[in-house]
Amino acid sequence: xxxxxxxxxxxxxxxxxxxxxxxxxxxxxxxxxxxxxxxxxxxxxxxxxxxxxxxxxxxxxxxxxxxxxxxxxxxxxxxxxxxxxxxxxxxxxxxxxxxxxxxxxxxxxxxxxxxxxxxxxxxxxxxxxxxxxxxxxxxxxxxxxxxxxxxxxxxxxxxxxxxxxxxxxxxxxxxxxxxxxxxxxxxxxxxxxxxxxxxxxxxxxxxxxxxxxxxxxxxxxxxxxxxxxxxxxxxxxxxxxxxxxxxxxxxxxxxxxxxxxxxxxxxxxxxxxxxxxxxxxxxxxxxxxxxxxxxxxxxxxxxxxxxxxxxxxxxxxxxxxxxxxxx
Amino acid sequence: xxxxxxxxxxxxxxxxxxxxxxxxxxxxxxxxxxxxxxxxxxxxxxxxxxxxxxxxxxxxxxxxxxxxxxxxxxxxxxxxxxxxxxxxxxxxxxxxxxxxxxxxxxxxxxxxxxxxxxxxxxxxxxxxxxxxxxxxxxxxxxxxxxxxxxxxxxxxxxxxxxxxxxxxxxxxxxxxxxxxxxxxxxxxxxxxxxxxxxxxxxxxxxxxxxxxxxxxxxxxxxxxxxxxxxxxxxxxxxxxxxxxxxxxxxxxxxxxxxxxxxxxxxxxxxxxxxxxxxxxxxxxxxxxxxxxxxxxxxxxxxxxxxxxxxxxxxxxxxxxxxxxxxxxxxxxxxxxxxxxxxxxxxxxxxxxxxxxxxxxxxxxxxxxxxxxxxxxxxxxxxxxxxxxxxxxxxxxxxxxxxxxxxxxxxxxxxxxxxxxxxxxxxxxxxxxxxxxxxxxxxxxxxxxxxxxxxxxxxxxxxxxxxxxxxxxxxxxxxxxxxxxxxxxxxxxxxxxxxxxxxxxxxxxxxxxxxxxxxxxxxxxxxxxxxxxxxxxxxxxxxxxxxxxxxxxxxxxxxxxxxxxxxxxxxxxxxxxxxxxxxxxxxxxxxxxxxxxxxxxxxxxxxxxxxxxxxxxxxxxxxxxxxxxxxxxxxxxxxxxxxxxxxxxxxxxxxxxxxxxxxxxxxxxxxxxxxxxxxxxxxxxxxxxxxxxxxxxxxxxxxxxxxxxxxxxxxxxxxxxxxxxxxxxxxxx
Lengths: 327, 732
Fold this sequence. Notes:
The structure holds two protein chains of two kinds.
Chain A (H helix, E strand, L loop, with lengths): L4 E4 L3 H9 L4 E4 L5 H6 L7 E4 L8 E4 L2 E5 L4 H6 L1 H6 L1 H8 L4 H6 L2 H5 L50 H8 L3 E6 L2 E6 H4 L18 E8 L2 H4 L1 E6 L10 E10 L2 E10 L6 E2 L1 H7 L6 H11 L11 H17 L4
Parallel strand pairs in A: 1-3, 2-3
Antiparallel strand pairs in A: 4-5, 5-8, 6-7, 6-8, 9-10, 10-11, 11-12
Chain B lengths: L13 H6 L14 E7 L5 E7 L1 H5 L3 E5 L26 E2 L5 E7 L2 H8 L3 E6 L25 E4 L2 H6 L3 E9 L11 E7 L2 E6 L4 H12 L6 E4 L15 H13 L3 E4 L2 H7 L6 E9 L5 E13 L10 H5 L6 E10 L11 H19 L3 H7 L17 H12 L11 E3 L2 E14 L7 E5 L5 E4 L9 H13 L6 E4 L16 H25 L14 E4 L2 E4 L2 E7 H8 L3 E5 L7 E14 L4 E12 L6 H21 L30 E5 L19 H17 L10 H5 L6
Parallel strand pairs in B: 1-12, 10-11, 14-15, 19-20, 26-27
Antiparallel strand pairs in B: 1-5, 2-4, 2-6, 3-5, 7-15, 8-13, 9-10, 9-12, 13-14, 16-17, 17-25, 18-19, 18-24, 21-22, 22-23, 25-26
Helix pairs in contact in B: 5-6, 9-16, 12-13, 13-14, 15-16
């Protein structure tokens, strides 16, 4: 690990100033991700600014919007009675993440900014366009079972690992930030960039811009929401594919549906096409299958991940069957 | 009077472990120790063209940077405990990715870690070969190695296959695996003149001593290796690997102690691995289930510098009565680190055989237990000699009863819970134990009536401290608390590596022999001393138990062992030399239940049960732990574990515990272990046999067989992940 400076911020504006003042500075809160990347040499900030003590950990409902502070711990949010009752998909996504130890420690803001689990990205002995622009992507013709079937490019096919981001994406969440240019609200679906030819630019955040919190609008659909995560072992593992779904029915007709997917794309994958295939339609095997087909219409599977095209459709059918009361 | 042996006493080292008092190798506090760190190659084949250490040498706290240009020259040890074909950092040649190319030494670990990133290395790299399937046409049978011959024949397989009414011809593939013990390998070398003390995470302290002696050219007596506690090994720490030798060399060169702890990722290329294997089995049988032939040909990876094959498919050779058997281990050379033994190496071949027998049972329309009963053998079919004892038939009977096997509907896909498919599968578990060079032992009885027993063996987590204390106490006739069993020091009498389930039979026999001699000495002291109430009684008529010597037939004539020793006023000692131990055969019947979600192909193992014959049970508590460990290893083998290698770069892609998926608690159901508990008359370890590897041999196939029973589909490529389950099936 490269030697680095450490500073603890007492106010959000001070944290922003500290990071903005140095090119190689980074925020740290729970530290469950950044410290691993530093140990592995993937990231080497010259200054880490500790924001874990900032007063940004409240969870509250305000005028129909759930507000979650960026330094709230995963466990706090997952266990919050109001989150469990009105936004179950958020609680379920968090409880399906990591381990109890990590959830006790990791902060919500940092969760959204996790880096990909791609083995090539995490190994400084391998080329990787995301880590070292222009060095190449060994995953494209190498080991790509875990990789993206949607949204990838010739430069990078890594997937985003956050379960929480998938759930938030389904619920039209907004990310609140504070940066050198002041406050911003960013739709969660716009936070992460697709890799294109600049996979190293992972989000739309500017240097020194800090996530301060999240806002999630209440809805009937959010109350009837679920998270389904399929993975290679029962716990403490990232998704092979996952689905966050929120559904409102009138009789058997879908009046509102939100669908976002994990494990299949470089960012949380909200599928408007799949939602369109279901909205105002009766929830039947045929409409669900149509939604699945719409989801994967543009899929570009690689040598080892073609199964995700099939598996994600089955996962979608499974969760809708659950939410729609078919089981 | 209750027996100490056979009693489920808690681990005698348990308190030290849970309170942190147990000093593992890296816990050794050696004053002034520097920190070493390996720099590893990023290419798999070729040579170093330039290596620039200037920036690293200028970095804060750095004491030295060694490359092939200035590393002391080391001789490759000839001892069988050294498996690597070369020692790195001796020349510019690169044989695999992750091979050490430089050794950084600094005042602190952090300084060493940073400096290691500043070493610049350029390579002239060749495209490596990383895929077994790409090299199949070059497969060959290597010469006999550490694990014996790589090809054996009994009878005439072609004739046997021709006699078959039913033939199964199937191929299974299993991936590369890594041991992944919790404690990564570590070495601290501390020289005092020409003598060195090495704190090593070793399953073979004596092997380490011998290899350091040979590599560095110092007398074996000058090398002392300490390894009192081990955070697991699974075979990884049995052989001696180059980083140990390099650390000893660097410490001698710098005249300062040096500590090296491998990072997790470095363990993937710094010691051995379980080779990827492709097994073709052809098994012939008559309609009544009688086997006519087994032809078992495996192809697995070796390297261009090593050709050891460690899975020997022993079960195919000796587990069943079959007149015509051919077993061959072929190899192909890849540019990857050297294979070695891992958990039971036999689990690979056993998975093949026990899966193929399950397939045969369906082809015959016969219950898989019945098929195995029809082909049971009480003797080793290669020699015609009996195994000490082999209560396998009783294992099938008791295991089946406890699992309620008779309630199984044999038809695939017949057992369901709602939409969930349920499958039950079984397999035989078998592993030889012993047959190694054995061990010596030393016992010293003090005038205070306490015994110190020493063997240069190890407790790799299996309970050696505890069961050897029990054997010593029982044999000496003392209470357990009066025995201090010591291990993990190469100054103690020789023991072979703690591998191959050889510790209980080898070390147990040595402890038994030494303690028997010491007990006889104490009895002789009593019966020849007029002050003893036992004076004049023939020594053969004296028993020792629970701290007392007693005359048989007259229990009023007795004397405390402690009193005899106090009156003697001097220690009583006994030592034994190593004696090879005849192999025993620990066997069992293993059963698994799986539940499969047919929509998304999710498999959960919901029950695992084994009924085992391990000879006499020394300690049900530690023996059961071994059964649990084997079941968990097998579950990982069947469903989750897989070392992933980049096919173009021959570089491991998942060298960490987040990418290499060991089962977690949520994957592991209740595991039940039953023991026959009949002493093996040929065992010198009070009737006990080695057992550690047996439970891991059958359960992998039992899980695969259960998945077949649940789904009606046979998955012959491990691990069985859900992508395979859903592939090519609209619904399962």
